[in-house]
């Protein structure tokens, strides 16, 4: 398959790219600052240009997204808007526009995260954005067939512990390679509307 992977240069995206390449897929990596194609997917016009450049696609997968982590008492309206835009809106836009570009039996695989169900202090905006992604996946799955859509909801990756460990006390990390396996399941499998939890 020919797969557009947004965030292919990141911690999770690197593992997803490796897993998909090992299985013989052609991965077109996307990042804001580098990759096979460069685009900021929070900009709808950049998403349109991205699909125009990408050529035929069998699947779109996302392993990208920014969130603001700040205690609720200090959280600003701009923090909330930035988090919804950085984590959720870009992914929704990739599907909204992508439905016209991806093969009729192709798929979308989005990224949420454990904070949807297991909140942490300072993570309210991120939890809300993840919840939006998951609700969208369940809803879009009704209208997209024969295209499919799923989300991956990982806990913290072992590789991210140097940065994130203080935020996830007592929560068992998983290797990024295990998260990548869930992407393979979503892309090569037959299910739709599913949230694959990697906890
Ligand atoms: N790592 C974890 O433990 C973990 C756990 C649960 C969920 N998640 C979720 O998984 C996703 C990836 O996390 P990560 O830790 O792998 O991130 P990361 O290492 O920071 O990598 C993110 C990648 O996505 C690209 N990117 C970010 N925003 C983009 C945008 N607007 N348009 C295009 N490309 C963009 C970045 O490219 P540039 O650097 O070129 O901008 C980078 O290659 C995030 O949504 C995160 O919330 C991560």
Automatic annotation (TrEMBL):
One example GO MF annotation: oxidoreductase activity
Check the record and name the Pfam families matching this protein: adh_short_C2
Gene3D superfamilies in UniProt: NAD(P)-binding Rossmann-like Domain (3.40.50.720)
Domain of life where this protein originates: Bacteria
Q: Kindly give the SUPFAM superfamilies that the UniProt entry links to this protein.
A: NAD(P)-binding Rossmann-fold domains
- Keyword terms of this UniProt record: Oxidoreductase
Query: PANTHER family annotated for this entry?
Result: DIHYDROANTICAPSIN 7-DEHYDROGENASE
* Family under the similarity heading: Belongs to the short-chain dehydrogenases/reductases (SDR) family.
What's the name of the protein?
Short chain dehydrogenase
Organism annotation: Streptomyces toxytricini (Actinomyces toxytricini)
Lineage summary: Bacteria, Bacillati, Actinomycetota, Actinomycetes, Kitasatosporales
